[in-house]
Amino acid sequence: MAEPFVLDRPGLEDLDEIFEIYGDPRVWTHFPSGRMIKREEAEAYLLTRIADWEIDGLGSWIVRESEGGPVLGMCGCGVRRMPLVDEWNPDRIEAYWNLGYRFRPEVQGRGYASEISRLAIARAQEVKPELPVIAYLLEHNEASRKVAEKVGLSLQYRVPDAGNPDPQAMRLVFADRTLTGTQLAAALI
């Protein structure tokens, strides 16, 4: 049976639709300050997602219901590299797969995030199995939390969300394995 969606690598031809999705305030109800206001923000984001594929052989997919159809959202895993302060090794970088998903409000709740996240995690574990898969989200985003749990990630940490305009916001870190202190520190940057 064919999948009810088509997954493509992102390209600059997707810019207008990505900006439409990532600029929609309904997509950011759980983190309003994350909303993209300028098209340049969406372009920079998209160029980074394109680079994920070129550098690591995997990244977030553009999701459509059919070949050539409108973009429904993005979902997938990309490697995030975070420099860590280490007096013994000043060039130390910690890396992990970051699972992310964001969809148009009209298609949220249809299971796309869960189904595609499962595929992304499996692929990430094939490409670079030494790296943990991490999803971090805000505690009050119950739908995102359900996706993380549904795809087999477990809660590793709960902490105030540093830099969030809402001082009460709590960040949850989910992962496919127990995280080392440096892996956790990288996910909290």
Automatic annotation (TrEMBL):
PROSITE patterns: GNAT. This is Protein N-acetyltransferase, RimJ/RimL family. One of its GO terms (molecular function) is acyltransferase activity, transferring groups other than amino-acyl groups. Gene3D superfamilies: 3.40.630.30. It holds the Pfam family Acetyltransf_3. It comes from the Bacteria. Residues 3-175 form the N-acetyltransferase domain.
